Amino acid sequence: xEILNLARQAxxxxxxxxxxxxxxxxxxxxxxxxxxxxxxxxxxHFESWVMEGGIIKEGSHNIEQGAGVRAVFGEKTxxxxxxxxxxxxxxxxxxxxxxxxxxxxxxxxxxxxxxxxAAGRPNYYATQNPLKxxxxxxxxxxxxxxxxxxxxxxxxxxxxxxxxVGLHEHILVARQDGSLVADVRPLVRMNVTVIVEQNGQRxxxxxxxxxxxxxxxxxxxxxxxxxxxxxxxxxxxxxEAVEAPAGNMTVVLGPxxxxxxxxxxxxxxxxxxxxxxxxxAFSGRVGERVASDLCTVVDDGTLEGRRGSLxxxxxxxxxELTVLIENGILKGYMQDxxxxxxxxxxxxxxxxxxxxxxxxxxxxxxxxxxxxxxDPEEIIKTVKKGLYAKNFGGGQVDITSGKxxxxxxxxxxxxxxxxxxxxxxxxxxxxxxxxxxxxxxVGTDLALDSGVGSCGKxxxxxxxxxxxxxxKIDGLTVGGTSV
Amino acid sequence: MQNHQQINRLKNTVQSILDEAVKQGxxxxxxxxSQENGLSVSxxxxxxxxxxxxxxxxxxxxxxxxxxxxxxxxxxLSPASIRETVGAACSIARYTSEDEYAGLPEKELLATEFPDxxxxxxxxxxxxxxxxxxxxxxxxxRSYHKEITNSxxxxxxxxxxxxxxxxxxxxxxxxxxxxxxxxxxxxxxxGDSMQRDYWYTVARNAANxxxxxxxxxxxxxxxxxxLEGRSLSTRQCPVLYCAETASGLLGxxxxxxxxxxxxxxxxxLLDALNTQVFPEFVxxxxxxxxxxxxxxGAYDGEGVxxxxxxxxxxxxxxxxxxxxxxxxxxGLRSTGNAGGVHNLxxxxxxxxxxGMLKELNTGLLVTELMGQGVNMVTGDYxxxxxxxxxxxxxxxxxxxxxxxxxxxxDMLKNIVAVGNDVDYRGNIRTGxxxxxxxxxxxx
Lengths: 483, 443
What we know:
The complex is a heterodimer of chains A (483) and B (443). Chain A contains 11 helices and 24 strands. Chain A is of the alpha+beta class and 483 residues long. Chain A folds into 2 domains: 1-240, PmbA/TldD superfamily (PmbA/TldD fold); 246-479, no CATH class. In chain A, strand 21 (454-457) and strand 22 (460-463) form a beta hairpin. In chain A, helix 2 (19-29) runs parallel beside helix 3 (87-98). The longest helix of chain A is centred in the middle third of the chain and has 17 residues, at 223-239. In chain A, 60% of the residues are buried. With 443 residues, chain B is of the alpha+beta class. Chain B has 3 domains: 1-226, PmbA/TldD superfamily (PmbA/TldD fold); 235-248 and 348-441, no CATH class; 269-346, no CATH class. Chain B is 24% helix and 37% strand. Chain B has helices at 2-23, 79-93, 126-142, 212-224, 243-256, 259-263, 324-329, 353-360, 408-413; strands spanning 28-44, 47-65, 68-74, 148-167, 172-190, 193-203, 235-241, 284-286, 309-313, 316-317, 344-346, 363-370, 380-391, 394-407, 415-418, 428-429, 433-441. In chain B, helix 3 (126-142) runs parallel beside helix 4. At the A-B interface, strand 2, strand 3, helix 3, helix 4 and strand 5 of A face strand 2, strand 3, helix 2, strand 6 and strand 13 of B. Strand 3 (76-82) of chain A pairs parallel with strand 2 (47-65) of chain B, so a sheet runs across the interface. Chain B: GO terms for molecular function: metallopeptidase activity.
C-alpha cells in the first residue's frame, strides 16, 4: 500500500488525475470486447555527472513522464501514449487504441471499479530517491576522489573519465480487472574509463557497476575506487597484448560478466514472443536437450538490489526465478501477459518496456548459470591450447539462425594448462542452440556482473544482469587476426 | 501553414526559456524544443498486429554561468515544469567546474541563411491505408517462394515533427520535417536451416519510397539466398563490403576523426590531418544542402552553419568532424558537426555491383555484420559476419558463423575499389567497398 501511495503522489497528484478518471479511461477501453487492457503511468527523474580532464565537466537533470494506453485483442495490440497526463488526452488515446477491435458495434461500456489489491508482495529494493542520497557537493567530491586516486595509480595514465548516474522511477499500472499496482525503482551506476600511453601506444580500460540502490553503494565498500583500479589494470594489460588467434578453439570464459554468453546465445532465443511466432531457433524445443547436463540456467528478477531486478514487471506481474534450462534440458520460456495467454502458459514476470512510450514485451531480468563442481584452476589446467576470456564488451544475436557474437575486451592465451600472454580484443562467434552442448566443465565460482548491462531489443533498452561460473567450451570461433 | 504557426509558437516558448535562464542568472543559454507525431502499423501473416499512435515532445536546455555549464531536459512542457527545468540546469552549473572551452558557438559561425531543404512532406495515409500497404508488402514477400515459411511481418511508419533551436546570441530557428518508412522481415526454411532477413525503404517524401511489392520481394530474396549457409576455414582473403555494411566502415572512420575522440586522444587517427588515410582515388565529402535528403540541414545541433566540404580528397584527410567544444579543445573552429555529419558521401567508382564482384574475383562478400568489436583507440577490428563466398566473380554459397578482423588503419588504406551501387537510405552514402585483405576466422 505504501508503494502505491508513493506512486500516486509522484505521478497522479501533480496532474489531478483521480481514480474516477482512471475508471473512465478504462471504461472507454473496455467498451470494445478486448482481451486485455492497461494504462501505464510513469514519472522518472534522471541525473548524470561527468568528470573528465580533471574537472567536473558535465551535469544534467532529466524528467520523463507520461502515460501509455494499450488494448489487446487476440494477437492484435492498439497503443497510444502521451507525455501529457490529462483526462481528455488519455480518453482520446483510449478511443484510438480500442479501434484495434473492428467488430463494428461497441459493446455496452463495461464498468470498471478501481480496487487496490491488499499487497503482501516482496520488494527487492528500497523506495528512497537515490538522487537525494548524497548532496550535490558530495557527488562532486566522490567524482573528484575517484579521479585523483585513479590518476595516482600509474604514471602511464593519460586521461580518466568518471561518470555517475542515478534514476528514480515511479510506475503505476491500471489493469482491466480494476487493479492498480505500483513500483518505485531506484537505479545507480558509476563508470571509470582510463586511457594509458606507453611509447606512443595507447589503450583504454573501463570498469563500472551499480544496482537498484543509492549512491552509498559506491562509498560503503570503496567500490568506486575499485572501479578505477580495475580500469587501470585492464588498460595496462592491453598495452602488452599481442595479436589474438583466429579460428575454432577451446575457450574458457571467466566468471561474472562473461555470462553475456548466456544472454546472447540462449536468453533472447527463449523469449516468449519469438517462440509463439516460431521465429526462434529454440521454437518448439521445450523438453529437448539444448545444453550439456552440467548446465542449469535461470532468469531471476527477484535478486535483492540487482540492476536487472524488478519487484513487479511493467505489466504488474510479480517477477520470479524462472528455470530456463535444467541439467541441459529446455524447461520453458520467458513470458509477458500477451504471449503467455496466447501460448496457454503463465506469465513469468518478464513483461518489460523502456518507458510509457513503448509497448511491453518479454525481456530478460538477471540471467545466469548455476555453479558447477569444478575448481576454476583445474579447468584451465585441462586446456592444452586455447583462449581464456575474462572481460567482454557487448554482444548480439540473430535469434532465427541462432548465430551470436560477443566481444572479448580482455583475453589471454592458454598454453599447456597455463594462462600465458595477453591478446588483443576479439569477437567470438557461435551457434546458440549448440554452444552449451559443448560445455564440458562448469566452475564452482558463480559470480554475477557488477551491474552495467543494458539490453536492446526492437529499439527498446532496459537494464539487465548476467552471471556465470567459469565455463569451458570445447570449440568456439575466435575472431583474431593471427591466422 | 499549420507548421508555420506551430514553429512560431515553439519559437516563443524557446525565447521565454532563454529569458527565464537569463533571469535566473545565466550569462548564456541554449534551448531546443521538439514535437513529433507519428503512426506505426505492423501486420503479420496477413493480419494487423499493432497500431501505435506516437506523440512526443521534449525540451533540452543548457545554461552557462561564465565558463560553467549545466543541462536539463523534460518531456513536460507546462510553464511550471519549464521553470523547474531551467532551475535544475542552473543549479547544476553551480557544481560543474570552470572549463575555458565551454560556451556557445562563436557568433559569426551561426547559420544566417535558411534555404528550404524540402524536408517536410506529410503523408496522409491513415490507419487503413497503412494496414493495406503493409499487407501488400508482406504478401509480396510470403508469396515470393515456397521456402518462405514464416514472417516477422511488415510495418509502415510515418513521423512528422517540428524542431526549434535558440540561443542567447539571438539565434532562433525552426523547421518541420517528415520521415516515412516501410519494412518487411520474413523467415525461410530448407531442411534444418532457418534464416531471416529484411528490407526497408525510408524517405522524407512518401512518393520516393520503394514500392511495397519491391520491398517484400527483396526481403524474401535476401532470406532465401542465406539458406544453408556454412562456415569457412580460417584464412586471409579479400573482403567486399556490400553498400549497407560499407556505411558502417565509413562510420568507424568518422568516429575516429570526430572531435570527442580526438581531444581525448582515443582515436587511431590522431594527428592524421593532411596525411594519406585512404588510397589516392578516394574522395569523401559532406552535402548538407541536398534537397529532401535524410541528412540535410542548414545548421547543426548548436546553430552553427553546416558546410559543403571535402573531408577526404586524393585520399588525404582534409578536415575533422567538430562541434564548438571539441574544436576549441583542439585549437580549431567548429565544422558544423554538433550532432554528426550531413549526407556524408564517398564518390562512387565506375563499377556496379556485378563489376565489384568481378573485381573481388575470389574472396568474401559481407552482407551482414554483428556486434561492436571496433577499438577506436587502436583501430583493432573484429566483428561477426555473414555473406557469400565468391569465386571468379560468381557467388558460390552463403557463409555464416565467421568473423572478419584487421586494423582499420590498414583496411582504409587498402581499399581497392568503391562501387556505384550506392545505398541512399542513410546519412552515409556509399556503394560497396572492396578491402584488399582481412583475416577470416571460422571452423
